[in-house]
Amino acid sequence: MRMYLLFTGALILVLQIWIGDWMKLKIVPRLLKNLIKKPMTVRFPNESIPIPEGYRGEHEYDKGKCISCGLCAKVCPNRAIEMVQSENGRKYPVIDIGKCCFCGLCQDVCHTGALKLTKNLVSPIIVDSNKKEKSGM
Ligand code: SF4
Ligand code: SF4
Hints:
Elements: H1 2-36, E1 59-61, H2 71-75, E2 81-85, E3 91-95, H3 105-109, E4 115-117
Antiparallel strand pairs: 1-4, 2-3
The structure holds iron/sulfur cluster (2 copies).
One iron/sulfur cluster (SF4) binds at residues 66-72, 93, 109-110, 112, 114-115.
């Protein structure tokens, strides 16, 4: 009886090692396939992936079309737009890109087409410790 239990235990151990090794061997073809496959990543910034249609990136603002209605600032859910007084007495939108979630509501509400979201990626903002940087227009 004791011999039988020892034999069964040894058999189970051998099977476990064998199955484990077999499972490990199963990844070898996948590894080989991945070695010859094109990488999924690109060498950014030298290479980049095409930006899909409908991507909402950096804002484009045409001051000439702006009628200072302030609707863009009112609709912005993140309060990223501030209407700032200009030298000509009118207020124009200034966007704090750090607060923007690129929802596109400002573009939707701007009926003159002064404010649009482009496919351009947002450039990184370097914040000076003494001077708080804003993406102004
Ligand atoms: S909604 Fe358009 S027109 Fe009105 S303030 Fe904003 S950018 Fe100017
Ligand atoms: S895209 Fe959305 S979050 Fe960004 S400024 Fe416009 S309304 Fe605000």
